[in-house]
Structure formats: structure tokens, C-alpha cells
Amino acid sequence: MYAPSDGTRTIKTKMVVGVMPGYKYECYYDHTLHPKSSSLTWSLDYDKYSDFDDVQGHWHVKSLSATRSRVFYAADLKLKGSVPKPILNFLSKVALKESTSWVKRESEKEYAKSGANMESVMLSPSPN
Hints:
Oligomer: single chain
Low-confidence stretches: none
Number of strands: 5
Helix content: 25-40%
CATH topology: Alpha-D-Glucose-1,6-Bisphosphate, Chain A, domain 4
Radius of gyration: 18 Å
Number of helices: 2
């Protein structure tokens, strides 16, 4: 991990995505945490071989109030060669849901730890 004066940190990861029996993708990523802008960006670690041709992505958290935030997610994926349609469908639909579904669960868990009243937040009007 590297922490320059602007507070950013670089995190290297290896991920294996099991799509269906006989199909898995192994990739190496460079993540950069940008705490001052509440965001995380990532791309492939081009120093290592990955099964995807290219990947770029971004998470961003925007605070709406003391008890509410909005999370933005974007990702682009370029596959190598031709890919069977069921795998393409999985990567474009199921993988997206799986890569973001943990956010609600984990944020509510952290919120509950803070002792705040979830019901009052859920019933309050959204500030848009």
C-alpha cells in the first residue's frame, strides 16, 4: 500500500470469478482509494496476466445527511475473444448484482452498530 501526501492509497488484489462449471476468470487489480473525494477507482494490474482484456471501475459515496448516503458504481469490462452468450449474460447481469448487493447489507449493519434508529431514517423524506 502506498500513501502519498494527498491521502490516496493503492491496494492490489487478485479476484477469481466463477461464472459456471468450467468457466472462471482470474484477474489482478489495482485499486486506488481517494478518501478526500470519497471514492475508489480500479483497473487491471497491467504488470500481471488477467483473463479479462481490460477493466475499469469506480465507486463513489455522496453524503446526503448525517444518516443518509448515496452510492454510485460504474464498471467497464472488455473480454478477450468470443464469449458464449450465457457467460456474457452472467457477467452483465448477475455479476453486477452480486458486486453491489453487499453494500446495503453492510451499510445497514454499520448503521445499526451506531445505535441510530433505522425506522426514523426509512420514514424521513429523501433530500433528492
